[in-house]
């Protein structure tokens, strides 16, 4: 346990906190708090004033794996000698009560777990004087420009390193992510003309930003959601085409067509064959931009939004048809990508909510080990029953032959009869347990199979998206 002294009920101070918990792997199970970590932050300077962290022994130790396959590295051994929540409840209450609470997704998860933990021990839960949930704040203000709103993704986007999934490290990372996001939003609000796209000379390659190429050097030329895509026309100058978020609607289509008109109306274009050739090239360039824009939208859309993907794709294909651009191969790859992401979403819905790949594999390994252990015990018990039966029979025959030793032999007989009954009872119990474990094993195998199918669909989706990108690049080279 690591701690510095906390003042009780700090006025106006912000406390960032985070919990590490078990994840229920079946219905009827509950969350158990395994670790609590918090830092108190000055709201004026955003500097850490105090900190506290502790491991917590759960009420059910069996909910924690024997070996470390969790992302946070917390094992049963590491928490079995830790204090219970009741032992640290007063300390946690003093840290949280009367302060502004802050954290990532705390409203839907951490706050609920805190109330549950205090209810378990029959004590009143701490109350905040305000709440800052960085998940909601950043979703509204910062958007999904980093790819998604997971803390690990946001930290990687700003180059803050990997998330350790330990409470104190996570809250410190949470504070740094908020600082970086606030800085970016301040700069965008203060310097809109400096950070928005204008007519300028740029490279002739159309670039898109996605989760797969999100890491850019700060001073390198790049295209992001805050900087427009640049295309080079056949006439020899560059034109900025603003990035459109959401979907390809009428405004987007008219903007592209009006941009095409501006290209064709530039003075100095020769008539005849050159004019026709320039028109064809301009149409292809606009088609390439439209395809690139669609890929950016698809890559930034969550897999469960199948309808939004299809609407964006259909509008894009319609526009490409109007431009007379051959997009058969591109369309085939895009539809395959959308199909793969749709299948991926269905698989993820079938998987147990809130479970990571590591937790599913940990659950499977745990149930597999229990099943194998009981199977060995059953085999050993059956061998023991067989041996006991033989010995019992032998002793019975000996008792009938040796009447002089009847009393002694009868005592032995009663002893082994009792042992035989106990072993058979144990055998029946183990057989019953094996039937129950077979069901659990089947559930674990199903989860494992779904996980493998999910990985296959992810790989197929990546491959399809890459093929679409290759098709786009080939279209550029044909210009």
Automatic annotation (TrEMBL):
Name this polypeptide is given: DNA polymerase III polC-type
Record-linked InterPro entries: Ribonucl_H, RNaseH-like_sf, RNaseH_sf
Ranges in coiled-coil conformation: 392-457
PANTHER family referenced in this protein's UniProt entry, alphabetically: DNA POLYMERASE III SUBUNIT EPSILON, PROTEIN NEN4
Keyword Magnesium tagged: yes
Keywords attached to this entry: Coiled coil, Exonuclease, Hydrolase, Magnesium, Metal-binding, Nuclease
Statement: the UniProt record of this protein carries the keyword Transcription regulation: no
One Pfam family linked to the record: RNase_T
Cofactor (UniProt): Mg(2+)
Record field: transmembrane: none
SUPFAM superfamilies attached to this UniProt entry: Ribonuclease H-like
Superkingdom field: Eukaryota
């Amino acid at each position: 346990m690591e701690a510095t002294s906390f003042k009780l009920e700090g006025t106006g101070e912000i406390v960032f906190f985070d919990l590490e918990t078990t994840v229920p792997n079946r219905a009827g199970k509950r969350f158990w708090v395994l670790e609590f970590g918090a830092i108190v932050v000055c709201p004026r300077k955003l500097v850490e004033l105090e900190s506290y962290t502790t491991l917590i022994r759960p009420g059910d130790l069996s909910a924690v794996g024997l070996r470390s396959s969790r992302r946070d590295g917390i094992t049963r051994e590491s928490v079995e000698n830790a204090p219970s929540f009741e032992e640290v409840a007063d300390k946690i209450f003093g840290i949280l009560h009367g302060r502004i609470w802050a954290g990532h997704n705390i409203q839907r998860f951490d706050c609920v777990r805190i109330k549950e933990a205090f209810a378990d021990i029959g004590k009143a839960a701490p109350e905040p004087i305000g709440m800052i949930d960085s998940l909601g704040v950043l979703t509204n203000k910062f958007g999904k420009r980093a790819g998604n709103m997971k803390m690990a993704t946001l930290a990687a986007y700003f180059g803050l390193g990997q998330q350790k999934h330990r409470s104190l490290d996570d809250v410190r990372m949470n504070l740094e992510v908020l600082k970086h996001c606030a800085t970016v939003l301040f700069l965008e609000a203060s310097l809109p003309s400096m950070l928005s796209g204008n007519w300028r000379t740029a490279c002739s390659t159309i670039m898109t930003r996605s989760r797969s190429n999100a890491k850019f050097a700060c001073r390198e030329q790049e295209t992001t959601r805050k900087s427009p895509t640049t295309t080079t026309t056949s006439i020899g100058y560059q034109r900025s085409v603003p990035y459109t978020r959401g979907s390809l609607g009428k405004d987007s289509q008219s903007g592209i067509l009006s941009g095409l008109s501006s290209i064709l109306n530039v003075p100095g274009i020769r008539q005849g064959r050159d004019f026709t050739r320039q028109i064809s090239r301009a149409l292809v360039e606009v088609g390439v931009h439209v395809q690139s824009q669609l890929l950016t939208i698809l890559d930034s859309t969550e897999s469960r939004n199948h309808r939004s993907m299809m609407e964006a794709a259909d509008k894009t294909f319609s526009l490409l048809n109007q431009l007379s651009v051959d997009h058969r191969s591109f369309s085939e790859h895009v539809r395959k990508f959308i199909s793969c992401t749709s299948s991926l979403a269905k698989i993820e819905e079938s998987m147990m909510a809130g479970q990571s790949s590591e937790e599913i594999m940990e659950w499977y390994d745990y149930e597999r080990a229990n099943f194998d252990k009981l199977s060995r015990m059953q085999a050993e018990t059956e061998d023991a029953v067989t041996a006991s039966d033989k010995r019992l029979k032998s002793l019975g025959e000996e008792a009938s032959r040796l009447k002089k030793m009847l009393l002694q032999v009868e005592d032995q007989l009663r002893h082994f009869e009792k042992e035989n009954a106990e072993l058979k009872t144990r055998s029946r119990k183990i057989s019953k347990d094996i039937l129950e474990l077979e069901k659990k094993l089947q559930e674990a195998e199903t989860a494992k199979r779904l996980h493998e199918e999910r990985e296959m669909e992810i790989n197929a989706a990546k491959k399809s998206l890459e093929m679409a990108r290759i098709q786009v690049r080939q279209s550029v080279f044909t210009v």
